[in-house]
Amino acid sequence: MIKVIGRRLAFALPVLLATSIGMFLLGAASPMDPAKQYAGAAVFTMSEENLAQIRANWGVDDPLYVQYLRWLGNLLHGDLGWSTSRHEMVGDVIAARAGWTLLLIGITLGVVLIGSLVLGTLAAYRRGGLLDRGVRVAAYAVQSMPSFWLALAAIAVFAIGLGWFPAGGLTDVRSTGVDVADVAHHLVLPVAVLAISQAPWFLLFVRDSVAESLREDHVLAARARGLAGRTVLFGHALRTALLPFLTLVGTHLPELVGGSVLVETVFSLPGLGAVSVHAALGSDFPLLAAITLITTAVVLAANLLTDLAYTAADPRVRIDG
Amino acid sequence: MADLALSRPRIRPGTPVAALVLGAAVGAVLLVPLLLPLDQSAVALDRTTLPPSPAHPGGTDDLGRDVLHRSIYGLRVSLLVGVVAAVAAALVGGLIGGLAGLLGGWVDRILMRVIDTISALPHLLLGIFIVAMLRPGLGAVILSIGLTHWLSTARIVRSELLSLRTRPFIDAAIAGGAGRTRILTRHLLPHVLPKIALAVTLMIPHAVWHETSLSFLGLGLPPHLASLGNMINDGQRSLLAGAWWSSIVPGAVIVAVTLAIAALAGRWRDHLDPRVRAELNL
C-alpha cells in the first residue's frame, strides 16, 4: 500500500510541479505589468519612481527562476499573495468562497451518484425497454449541451417562466443572514443543472456495467435459486458493478470542476468558479494561479484516494506503474 | 479505461438526419456570408427583442440584431476555431503518442503515466488560465484547446503504433532492409493517419464546447464578434427579462451541430477496427 502511494506521488508531484512552472512561465510571458495592475487607476497620477519602487519591492525584475522559487516558497508557506483584481489577500478570497463551491460540488456528486445508480440499474434490467431507450437518448442529447446553456434554459423555464426558483444568487436579496432553507431553495436549480449535465457519463457507465454483470455466473445462480428480482438486481448485479464505478468517479472530477465554474457564473454564486472567471478577466495571476493549483492538487489527491480505496476494497486489484 | 462504457454502440440520431443537419449547417455557413453578408457592428434600435417570427426566425436581440443570422456567423467562427484547434491538439497528441509508441520501454511507461496524471487536471480551469495570461483572442483560445485536448490522440496513436510494431509486415520490411524513415513513412503512417483523422473529427465538438465556454465567460473571442458563446452571454440579460430566444437559439445551434458531428464520427468509428474503439472515446 505504501509502495503504491509512493509510486502515485512520484508522478503526481512532478506533474503538479510542471504545471506550476508552466503557469508561472505563462504568467511571466503575459503582457500585464503587475505593478501597474496593483496601482489600478492611480497609475495615471503615479510617478515613474513610485512604479519602479513597487517593482523593486516585488522583485519583478529579478531573474525568472528566482521569482519562481520565491513564488513557490511563499505558496508552500501558505502565503498565496495579493489579488490584484479583488484587492484582498488571495488566501482570504479562497477561504471565503471555497466552502460554497465544495457544497455545490458535493451535493451535485451525491445527486448524480444516487440518480445514476438507480436509473442506470433499472435501465440495465430491461435492456431495450422504454426506460432504457429514453435514458440513452436523453444522455446522448444532454452530452452535447453546454452546461451554461442548460443553466440559462433552466432559468428561462423555472425561474422566469414558472417562477418556482430564484434565477441566481445564494440568499434572498432582502435577507440579512444565511438561512439554510433559503440557501437550499437557491441551490435547487444550480445543483439540478450541474447534476444533469454531468449525469450522462455516469448513467451510461452504470447501465453498461450492470447489464454486463447481469450475465455473470453468480447473478444467474442467484436468479436460479429463485431470489426476488429486486434482490438479484441491487444485491448481486449492482454490487459487482459498484466498485469499478466508484473508482472512476475520481477520473470524472475534472469535468465536474469545469462544469461548476460555468454554473456558478450563470447563477452568480459566490464560489471559486465565479471568482476565478473574474480573476481571469482582470489577468489576476496570483489569485487565478492559486485557485488553479489548489484545485489541481485536490483533484489529484481525490484520484489517489479513490484508487487506494479500490485496492483496499478489492484485493485482486493491483495498481501497477 | 475511463470511457470503456461509452465505447459500445449507443442510440444515436439516424445517420441521414445527422448528415442533413451537418450539411445544412455547412451550407448555411458557406452561403449566408455570400448572399446575406452581416454587418457585425450594425444595430437596429427600432426592432429590439422581437420574438421569433417569419421575418426573424430566431427573433432579434436587445440591439435589434437578427439572432439566427448572427448565429450562422457565430457557427462559422466556432467551426473554424473547432477544426483548427482540433488539428492543433491532434498534432501535439500525435507527436507525444508517436514518441511513446515508437520508442516504447520506459519512455512509453513514463509518458503514459504523465498522460494519465494530466487527464486528472481540471482542463477548463487550465484553459481559462492560459487564455487569461495571453489576453483573450483567437490565438489564445486555439492554444488553450490545443494544450488541454491532446491526450486522447496521444493514447490512440500510441496504442496503434504498439500493435503495428508486432505485425508480420513490419518484420518483413525490416528483414527486407528498410530503414527507420522508410518504415515510419511507408508502413506506419498510412495506418495511423486515418485514426488521427477520426480523432480530429471526434475532437471538433469538444473544441467547439471549450471555445463557446470561454467566449461565454468573456474570455474567448472579442465581444463585438458574432460568436455563439458571445451571443449566449449577451443574451443573458434579455433572458432574465423574458426574451429567452437570444440565448437559447445560438445554444440550440451548438447542440444540433455538435450532435450531428458526434453521430457521424461515431458511425465512422464503428466501421474502423473494433479493437481501437475503446481508445477513441473523447
From TrEMBL, chain B:
<keyword id="KW-0812">Transmembrane</keyword>
<feature type="transmembrane region" description="Helical">
    <location>
        <begin position="17"/>
        <end position="36"/>
    </location>
</feature>
<dbReference type="InterPro" id="IPR050366">
    <property type="entry name" value="BP-dependent_transpt_permease"/>
</dbReference>
<feature type="transmembrane region" description="Helical">
    <location>
        <begin position="77"/>
        <end position="103"/>
    </location>
</feature>
<dbReference type="GO" id="GO:0055085">
    <property type="term" value="P:transmembrane transport"/>
</dbReference>
<dbReference type="GO" id="GO:0005886">
    <property type="term" value="C:plasma membrane"/>
</dbReference>
<protein>
    <submittedName>
        <fullName>ABC transporter permease</fullName>
    </submittedName>
</protein>
<keyword id="KW-1003">Cell membrane</keyword>
<comment type="similarity">
    <text>Belongs to the binding-protein-dependent transport system permease family.</text>
</comment>
<keyword id="KW-1133">Transmembrane helix</keyword>
<dbReference type="InterPro" id="IPR035906">
    <property type="entry name" value="MetI-like_sf"/>
</dbReference>
<keyword id="KW-0813">Transport</keyword>
<keyword id="KW-0472">Membrane</keyword>
<feature type="domain" description="ABC transmembrane type-1">
    <location>
        <begin position="75"/>
        <end position="265"/>
    </location>
</feature>
<feature type="transmembrane region" description="Helical">
    <location>
        <begin position="192"/>
        <end position="209"/>
    </location>
</feature>
<dbReference type="Pfam" id="PF00528">
    <property type="entry name" value="BPD_transp_1"/>
</dbReference>
<dbReference type="InterPro" id="IPR000515">
    <property type="entry name" value="MetI-like"/>
</dbReference>
<feature type="transmembrane region" description="Helical">
    <location>
        <begin position="243"/>
        <end position="265"/>
    </location>
</feature>
